[in-house]
Amino acid sequence: MPSSSSPTTTGPSPETLRTRTLSVRVNVAEYVELAARRDAVGMREMGAYLRTAVLAQRPPQAVVPTVNRQAWQELARTASNLNQLTAHLNAGHRLDATGTAWLWETLTTLREEVRTLRLALLGVIPEEREDEP
Length: 133
Description:
Blueprint: H1 28-40, H2 46-55, H3 66-90, H4 97-121
């Protein structure tokens, strides 16, 4: 027979035991948004996600998969090479007028595509640029 002075079970302390229930109603669109945000950070339980988001005073950030970070780093090197080539052309090392115009346009397009792809890999939607229509 166990002694009355030693506990027979272990569990959460009264201070950490969750005994209060909160109820919040949301519409379908709100639920879908919350579920998407919860999934993006890799959490399974909605209650745990909401508790973390509210008590941390900001929602958890989305987890960027390792493969996206690796692709982002590789694209950073490509973007750097494109910038160096553009700087080389800007320094006066030019082709004939037609070749230079074509190369410049191509490099500008590639640089913007790489920038957009890098941001997309991090889950960022690029804002409209002032120089675009």
